[in-house]
Amino acid sequence: MSITKEEKQELIEKYGKHSEDTGSAPVQVAILTKKINDLTEHLREHPSDHHSRRGLLQMVGKRKNFLEYLETEEPETYEKLKKELNIRMRKL
Questions:
Q1: Prediction pTM value
Q2: CB atoms within 10 A of CB 67
Q3: By the 8 A CB rule, do 31 and 86 touch?
Q4: Which of 73, 69, 81, 83 is nearest to 11 (CA)?
Q5: For residue 17, how far is the Cα from the chain centroid?
């Protein structure tokens, strides 16, 4: 259910500015998306796991904040990430 070191390093190399870049918004969005997808699969098998569901909602909220930041500061990176990670953002 959690992300492995190797998976995390692959995401950092793909979306980071350099190999040690773990804090930039695109890397954070990619890591959160991987965790969200894994946790979604877990919740399909275990629908009564409400503690994990709460964690999932927190991660989705955190990812949403990163994406809103990217949308205003780096629109081209935002569009690229949305397309590559298959993220749907709902506008209100």
A1: 0.92
A2: 21
A3: no
A4: 81
A5: 17
Q: Tokens 């999932």 identify what position?
A: 56
**AA letter at 63:** R
In order, the DSSP letters of the chain are -PPPHHHHHHHHHHHSSSTT--SSHHHHHHHHHHHHHHHHHHHHH-TT-HHHHHHHHHHHHHHHHHHHHHHHH-HHHHHHHHHHHT------
Hey, what are 43's tokens?
């919740």
| pLDDT single digits (tens) 10-48 | 999 999 999 888 899 999 999 999 999 999 999 999 999
Return the residue matching tokens 């990217």: 70
Structure tokens at 92: 């209100």
- Residue 44 to residue 46: CA distance in whole angstroms: 6
* Residue 33 burial by Cβ neighbours in a 10 Å radius (0-12, 13-18, 19+): buried
